[in-house]
Every structure is written in structure tokens, then in C-alpha cells.
Amino acid sequence: MSAVDTRTNHVVVIGGGISGLAAAHRLSRGGARVTVLEASGRLGGKLLAGEIAGVPVDLGAESMLARRPEAVDLARAVGLADRLQPPAVATAALWTRGALRPMPKGHLMGVPGVLAPLAASGVLSDEGLARIARDEELPHTETGEDVAVGAYVAERMGREVVDRLVEPLLGGVYAGDAYRISMRAAVPKLFEAARTHRSLTEGVRAVQAQGDGAASGGAGREVGDGGAGRAGAARPVFMGIAGGVGRLPLAVADAVRAAGGEIRLDTPVVDVRREADGWRIELGTGTVTADAVVLATPAHDAARLLGYVCRPASAELAAVEYASMALVTLAFRRPDVEGIAHGSGFLVPPVDGRKIKASTFSSNKWQWNADADPDLFVLRTSIGRFGDEDDLTREDAELVSMSLKDLGDAVGLAATPVESRVTRWHGGLPQYPVGHLDRVARIREHVASLPGLRVCGAAYDGVGIPACIASGHRAADEVLGTLAAGAEGRGGE
């Protein structure tokens, strides 16, 4: 990380989600004077801490991959080390074929390496299991430069394993369609396994043999987490923060301010223009000048802001699609759920035709949530996925009723909640279709022609919290490098 002169270098970060705040934190530590401009009235993006019936909850992303270091390291750096907590319970289920069934072990993002646990779970029919077994007999299937996860796995193992196992797991991360999602971008370990092994089951077993959580697929939980985290024997796969992961961006913002940075809310950016000695950022209420800019906004906003200064990158960003969804958070009297809500929650395959796609039993999964009020039990459901968002036009009360109906069918819950909250995430999750990584490479190549401007966020290298933080760090490091090189050049004149 290069140090720059705080007296002369001003960097504006546009966007106050976790990616932008991570970039701002990195820039501040690297010596830059930082201003964060956030269009809305709050920080955090898809990380949002709130409460229901007096109990603190996450109303957005609620856990972060712990076996990738960026999120945990940042939490520690901003004073949250003593609030980091692994899930108290991490035993998820699948609600499919009319019953709650245990999540089978021995898979890589739903793709099995061994059949025995899958057969015992009852998730697949005998015909589905027999089709998977044929994978070991088939000749190798080429992946090419990229391939859709669902298409490739269905060709090797049949559609049933995709529809009932791969789809709900990928949907918990991307709220997307497994038959469109890029294997290379979303599950790189599976892509490498498919590329280098004759059979897919053989490749999955090879990945599992590597250990250290490789079988988790490397994807971080996002807004649509269905409680499918799996705890490892040595250290947890996922981590939360007491009081909610939504506390993380607030703590990062405090650290940025403590380092002399400025954070401005309710400050939408109208335009970004290159000037001879830097950048001019047009606001609705005035102008800000900067030596460098980090765009940490959703792809469509980045496309708008780059429309004048970099049309090729703008066109690529405008083509990025997003899924919308809603989270329904419900609080019950604990006696009303005794004997009903077990484990950390369950996922629901789209093929089963239910309204909810997942449910997380928050008071089971997070000890801090249970301790906040031992007399209450909090859970949440998620509704909506890419291409299936019609229900999101309904009133909040209807989404609550849909959730209660499915929870009744799944676990026999018949109680009335003490309180309910619906949080809508319109355009919440970027989609990673086949060719996504090539699109990202083109965007970065175009943007690299602009001195002192970089992009970061969930639309590029991963939707999980650690991936977003890494994206912010990358943008910050490149900007610091550009500023340092510029200072050296000026010194030699």
C-alpha cells in the first residue's frame, strides 16, 4: 500500500456501501484525504442493522464468509473483534418433495462428490440418484471458456440434482438462476474441477480433499441467505457480528472519520468529469474537486456517471442485470415455536413452487439474537429471485401472509407473530451470467485509461461481503499507486 501526501491528494469515494467504505478506510490508512459521497440517508448498502420487537436483527446481509480473511480482518481493524461470533447452530435443511430434509454433506455448492449422504437425505428420487451415478461413466465434457453451472451439471448428472440442490444453494447467494449463472465466476473451484477431471464427482472429491472449507464453493452469503451455513470442525465457515453485520459499515465509517475523512449523506452525484489536474464531481448542490475518484456504486449508477468520460465502460456496466427480493422478518413468542423451529433454517428449491425461497431461524443461528430477549424467537424468510419477482409488487401484509403459509406447511407453525417487518431490496443482487468475468475485465481495461479513477463493488468480483471489501481494497490500492506515481513524476520535473 503506497503512502501519499495528505496535503495534496484528495480522493472522493462515490457510494457508502461496504465496498466504498472499505476503499475509504484503505485510502485513509494510505495517507489520502478522503470524502465519501452517499446518495441516500444512510451508510451500509445491503448491510442494514435494525430491530424487531426490541430485538436487534440484520435486515440485509447477515453473515460473512470467515475462511476468506477480508471481512473478519476489517471488523477487527475497526474495533469489532470482541463482537465477532460464529453461528451457534449451523445445521440447515432443504424443504423439498413435501418434507424438510437434512442438507446432505459431501457436496460442492450442491454438486455431490459422494452419493451416500445424498441418498440418505431423501432429497432426490431413485431415478435422480441413478442419473448422478452415470457421471463416472461418461466421457469428459468440455467447459470452454465459461459455462452455466446448471447446464453443465445437468449434462453430467441430470436436472434433478440441479433443480433440488444446486438451485437453492446458488439462489441463497445470488437470488439467480443456476441455468444462467457462470460457473467460472460463481463457483471457480467447481469450474477448475470440471476442467481438469474426467468426471464431475471425481473433481468434487479432489476439491474436498484440499480441505479448509473448499467445498463451500467460496461464495459469501448475501442478502438472500437461507441459513445454509455449514460449520467446520476446526474453525467456522461463516461469522456474524453481535448486534448484526450491519454494524460493520458504521464502525468502518467511524474509523474513516477518525482518520480525518469526511462522509456526506443525502449527497447524490450528478456527473463526473475529467479535468487537467484531476476530477470534478458535480452534485445537485455544488461541485467537489478531487485528485482521484473511486466509483463504489451499483453498475447502473456507475454506467450513468461514466457515460461521458468512458462510454465503452458505461455500455458494459449498463448491461449488468440485478435481482430484487424482499426479506420478511418475524418475531414470535418462544413457546409458540417450541418443538417446531430446529437448526439454522432451510432452503427451498424453485421447482417445488413455494413462495418463499429460504428461511433463517435467527434466534437459533445467532446466540446474540437469542440472548437479546429469551422470551422471543426471531426468524426471517426471503421472497423473490431473478425472473420471479412479481410477488414483490404486493403489499407488505401479503408477503407476511405468504411467509406464514409456507412456514405452516414446512414446519407446522400456526402462531401469529408479535411483530413483522418487510425489507425490500430492489435491484439488490447483481447477476453473474456466463461471460461475466470477461465483461469485468473489459470494464477494468476501459476504466484503466482514466488516470485516478477506479470502480469497485458487488458487480465485479463476488457478491459476498469479503469479496466486496476486497474489491474496495483493490480500487484503493490502485488509486494510491497512481497518486504515488504522479507525485514521483512531478518531483522529477
From TrEMBL:
Keywords: Cytoplasm, FAD, Flavoprotein, Heme biosynthesis, Oxidoreductase. NCBIfam families: proto_IX_ox. Its EC number is 1.3.3.15. Belongs to the protoporphyrinogen/coproporphyrinogen oxidase family. Coproporphyrinogen III oxidase subfamily. SUPFAM superfamilies: FAD-linked reductases, C-terminal domain, FAD/NAD(P)-binding domain. GO terms for biological process: heme biosynthetic process. This is Coproporphyrinogen III oxidase. Pfam families: Amino_oxidase. The keyword Transferase does not apply. It comes from the Bacteria. InterPro entries: Amino_oxidase, FAD/NAD-bd_sf, Protoporphyrinogen_oxidase, Zeta_carotene_desat/Oxidored. One of its GO terms (molecular function) is oxygen-dependent protoporphyrinogen oxidase activity. The keyword Flavoprotein applies. It comes from Streptomyces netropsis (Streptoverticillium netropsis). GO terms for cellular component: cytoplasm. Pathway: Porphyrin-containing compound metabolism; protoheme biosynthesis. It is an enzyme of class 1 (oxidoreductase). Residues 18-480 form the Amine oxidase domain. It is found in: Cytoplasm. It catalyses: coproporphyrinogen III + 3 O2 = coproporphyrin III + 3 H2O2. Gene3D superfamilies: FAD/NAD(P)-binding domain, protoporphyrinogen ix oxidase, domain 3, Protoporphyrinogen oxidase, mitochondrial, domain 2. Involved in coproporphyrin-dependent heme b biosynthesis. Catalyzes the oxidation of coproporphyrinogen III to coproporphyrin III.
